[in-house]
Amino acid sequence: MKTPRPNLSDMALAAGVPGAAGHTAPLAAPSRLLVKVCGMRDAVALAEVAALGPDFLGFIFAPKSPRFVGEALAPELVRALPPSIWKVGVFVNETTENMLAIAKRFGLAAVQLHGQETSAQCEELSEAGLLVMKAFSVGQAVDFVALLPYVPYCDFFLFDTKGAAPGGNGAIFDWNLLSGYNLPVPYFLAGGLGLEHAAELAVLRLPGLVGVDLNSGFETAPGVKDAGRLAQMLTQLHLSAPVL
Ligand SMILES: O=C(O)c1ccccc1N[C@@H]1O[C@H](COP(=O)(O)O)[C@@H](O)[C@H]1O
Q1: I need a labelling partner for 219 at 20 to 30 A (CA). Which of 15, 35, 140, 168 fits?
Q2: pLDDT at 16 over 50
Q3: Where does the record place the N-(5'phosphoribosyl) anthranilate isomerase (PRAI) domain (predicted)?
Q4: Is this structure's pTM higher than 0.80?
Q5: Ligand 1 centre and the CA of 169: distance in Å?
Q6: 39 near 60, Cβ under 8 Å?
């Protein structure tokens, strides 16, 4: 299955530097922090948030999540989103077959793997033409060596706070734990980010950091995003200095 990939240069992300996974991934320094808004499951909020022009929109296909898409969103609504927005399916320990079927149905160009997925599964998904974002939970330390097998097959890593649930815990971790990151895969910062972090994030410089993932901190109810608060956040983040 080959989902057409959005043109990254259209997103002003990069100068077309081949990514670690062999795709044309945004490895070159973006002109600002990329923004992924995750957990979309309400049609009205989806239209409002899409109009803000985030770089990525995430749809959660983990049945235990309060943000599980289920039957809440028609696949056509997702497929009809502007091609400039990367549509990301978020999965937890799902089979490759199911992920590919869902990606095709909803027109997803990317997968976010938020469980204990192996590097071999990342390889399968990457070879199927999907952009692969592998999430890792962060507690008191980050074992960068454990990430090495994933490097060739992932376009992005995502660091999220370890918690009771696989994701969406609404808690931040100590971002300084990433100050020693030296792998060639750019990453997103996730976990409890809210409007109160905007100023700090706009000037935050960590090696490899290229984007932020906004989720439960911008909701009126699980899966219902607050477009007003997101608009304020994007305005502040879009003013952020180039990511180096
Ligand atoms: O949000 C969820 O319910 C969820 C469920 C299962 C896997 C991932 C999930 N969300 C991801 O979790 C992080 C952090 O979210 P939060 O800011 O702490 O709410 C984010 O990457 C979401 O994509």
Answers
A1: 140
A2: no
A3: 35-234
A4: yes
A5: 7
A6: yes
